[in-house]
Recover the amino acids of this structure.
């Protein structure tokens, strides 16, 4: 997300120039971060579940069975980490001054 924010400085400058406030840009970046973390956690859970089913076919490996609570907790943790990870880039996106970006851009 930090790299994405740095690459989109011009976009944020235009949004600020047309009247977007800092909270709107923060909301935009946090929403994108939340969507990415939800999609990533769902994909990871799906692949992890598939791998655990495949490994579960070999009982000699001694892999413990996981429950629905573990799946829910891991999805919740992934979304939380993704959202918290998006806070710094969201705050950083607010610090761009449109005039400076257009002057140097």
């Amino acid at each position: 997300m930090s790299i994405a924010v740095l690459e989109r400085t011009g976009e944020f400058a235009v949004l600020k120039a047309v009247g977007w406030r800092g909270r709107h840009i923060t909301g935009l970046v946090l929403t994108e971060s939340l969507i990415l973390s939800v999609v990533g956690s769902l994909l990871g859970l799906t692949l992890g579940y598939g791998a655990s089913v495949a490994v579960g076919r070999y009982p000699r490996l001694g892999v413990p069975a996981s429950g629905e609570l573990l799946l829910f907790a891991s999805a919740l943790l992934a979304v939380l980490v993704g959202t918290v990870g998006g806070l710094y880039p969201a705050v950083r996106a607010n610090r761009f001054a449109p005039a400076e970006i257009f002057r140097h851009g």
The radius of gyration is 20 Å. The helical segments are 2-7, 9-17, 22-56, 68-85, 87-94, 98-104.
